[in-house]
Design brief:
Length: about 325
């Protein structure tokens, strides 16, 4: 395959990041788009010269695409991934891939059995800082993990509804949760406490918490904590700290710090992680090499499980265990 014909299902802000990025890749051609907002789909089609379709199914049945980016919200994914897989259409499914574990496990099984190339929206794996940290940690034993995702509330109304977004941990902080899995391994047990502190003053009908603390253990035996908040308008933070008996590693976006008995690294890398993510996916589709993708759909399912387990823990007040057999799908 010399050039990959790409379609989009969902044409919101996240999709537009990918659309712009694809213009930098000579071996990708943006050919088709569908969005429930027909006016938005028409604008995108005109801007990029893509054919506009009236439904996701019509786009998938058209023969106009080799691969599709699925950029709909997590509550609007009914049947899309399965239909693409059954048609042999390769897919990049934005995170989170759903809100129901039974459903996403079923999707993952269909995707795996179809043999298509599959990717997910965990773009931070493609940061050079993350790759260098992963290389450094390959022979290290992490004992403790500290992580944070603090910021303000997104303007999207559906984000404020627990049954639409799953809350900040599922929809945003999932990136840091995924980095913990990628660098240290799968989760074993989570215990979460959430609260609504400021959000109801501005949005009385909101059902998501705006602050949360999660304590956890990993399958490796390491323990950690995660702080998540979407009420902080004056301060933001999104980093992962990894601590061993004789080393310290912290990742803050493109910034990496490593300290041990021999190293004192403090570097910042300017990786265009969306470009690297999309380049890897397009090349994987073009060559048939799934190994080029750093986070497949199955990885997204495992990360989702950790975040939904935390939601369950916060709702019940009890710790929730994730068995090793279900940590990977």
């Amino acid at each position: 395959m010399s050039k990959v014909k790409v379609g989009f299902i969902g044409a919101g802000g996240m999709a537009e990041h990918h659309m712009k990025t694809l213009q930098k890749l000579e071996q990708a051609e943006f050919t088709a788009v569908f969005d429930l907002n027909a006016e938005r789909a028409g604008q995108v089609g005109e801007q990029y010269g893509a054919q506009v379709f009236d439904s996701a199914d019509q786009l998938l049945q058209s023969g106009a695409v080799d691969a599709v980016f699925i950029c709909t919200p997590p509550f609007a994914r009914d049947g899309i991934e399965e239909a693409a897989a059954r048609k042999g259409i390769h897919l990049l499914s934005e995170k989170p891939v759903g809100l129901n574990m039974e459903v996403v496990r079923s999707k993952s099984k269909i995707i795996q059995e179809s043999g298509i190339i599959h990717s997910s929206g965990y773009c931070l794996r493609y940061l050079e800082s993350v790759q260098k940290a992963k290389e450094y940690l390959a022979d290290k034993s992490v004992d403790m993990v500290l992580s944070y995702r603090l910021g303000s509330l997104p303007g999207t109304p559906w984000f404020r509804k627990m049954d639409k977004s799953g809350g900040q941990l599922v929809e945003q902080s999932t990136h840091q949760v995924d980095l913990i899995r990628y660098l240290v391994g799968d989760f074993h047990e989570v215990h979460a406490r959430y609260a609504q502190r400021s959000i109801l003053k501005e949005f009385p009908d909101a059902t998501i918490p705006d602050v949360g603390i999660i304590s956890f253990s990993l399958q490796s035996g390491a323990v950690g904590s995660f702080s998540t908040a979407c009420m902080s308008k004056k301060f933001g933070r999104g980093d992962v700290e990894l601590i061993g008996s004789d080393f310290y590693v912290t990742i803050k976006g493109g910034a990496l710090r490593i300290v041990d008995n021999e190293l004192n690294v403090d570097e910042k890398y300017n990786t265009d992680f969306y470009l690297e993510q999309d380049r890897a996916f397009i090349e994987a589709v073009r060559t048939g090499r799934q190994e080029l993708v750093l986070g497949g759909y199955d990885e997204a399912v495992a990360t989702l499980e950790a975040t939904l387990a935390a939601n369950e823990s916060a709702a019940t007040g009890r710790a929730v265990t994730i068995s090793a057999s279900t940590a990977q799908v």
